[in-house]
Amino acid sequence: MDFRQHLIIAAKGAVVGGTMLVPGVSGGTMCILLGIYDRLIHAVSTFFHSKRANFLLLFWFCLGALGGMLLLAKPLLQVMELFPRPAGFFFMGAVAGSIPMTFQKAEVRSFHWSIPVYVVVGAVIVWALAKLPAMDQMEGGGMEQVLMLVVAGVVAAVALVLPGISVSYLLLVLGLYGPTIQAIDQLNIPFLLPLGLGLALGIIATTKLLEHLMQAHPRGTYLVILGFVAASIPTIFPGVPAGLEWIVCALTLLAGFGVVYKVSHLE
Question: Helix, strand, or coil here: 153?
């Protein structure tokens, strides 16, 4: 690839990195929409077959993604602090907006008893993740916190690889969304390093498995994702609005749904 192609890959990485900071926006889905998903999966799963080409592709993509995160981290943090409830309703709408695309990917032609079973499995996964201890419940910054960050990175790696699951949503469920955005904004290396290590380990461990599942069992895989996405909506409910805030929250809910629904159907 020439330098221009590298810049295009970096630009696509910046779009993915910046948008996946928003809970509900799937990094995998954005990669599909930008036409780079298959190349990234192939580069990871066959890395040692063509080391130089795969390394350059992943390097430029990750460089762009990091730049996109750094650009958007501070504005997102400020919006969440100034307008927590409208922002929460926007995130709920964004999560709901990905449901039609996920169901379409499942390619359900007729009803079968296994369909609700797969959906329930996805919902149970969300319930289990929500039971994990949140960062704000952990004391100190010792080894327990480091291990928690590594585990969170491994879990979030699935969302990076699999379309339909939002990395930011997983971090939100784990109580790590706010701290991660803040760490990116402040370049908090002791926080970001174990999280990044977990992401790398998770991507390496899950890429081939997820690629196989999506190719061999697409319906079951996407129905599990559907259950995951649908069950995630109540877990990020920010509370009941008061007064005129109802109107603002309703508009942000519709805006979040509309943006993600529209983007997901550009494919």
Answer: helix
In angstroms, the CA 199 to CA 167 distance is: 10
Q: Specify the DSSP class assigned to residue 236.
A: T
Amino acid at 231: A
Q: What SS3 class is residue 132?
A: coil
> In angstroms, rounded to a whole number, what is the distance separating the alpha carbons of residues 213 and 107?
15
At residue 180, what is the residue type?
A: T
Chain centre to alpha carbon of residue 65: 13
Q: What is the pTM of this model?
A: 0.66
Q: Which two tokens stand for residue 46?
A: 């066959």
Q: In angstroms, what CA-CA distances link 204 with 45, 146, 161? A: 8, 20, 10
Give the chain's length.
267
238 exposed, middle or buried (CB, 10 Å; 0-12, 13-18, 19+)?
A: middle
Q: What is d(CA 80, CA 166) in angstroms, rounded to the nearest whole number?
A: 17
Work out the angle at residue 129's Cα, subtended by the Cα atoms of residues 20 and 259, and round it to the nearest 5 degrees. Answer: 30
Closest CA to 28 of 258, 211, 227, 218: 211
The owner of tokens 């008061």 is 242
The answer on pLDDT for 180 being more than 70 is yes
CA distances from 197 to 82, 107, 156 (A): 32, 35, 11
Quote the tokens at residue 51: 């080391």
Q: Three-state DSSP class for 166?
A: coil
Q: What is the mean pLDDT of the chain?
A: 81
Residue 226, SS3 per DSSP: helix
* Residue 173, token pair as written in the block: 């469920």
Asked whether the predicted pLDDT for residue 140 surpasses 70, the reply is no
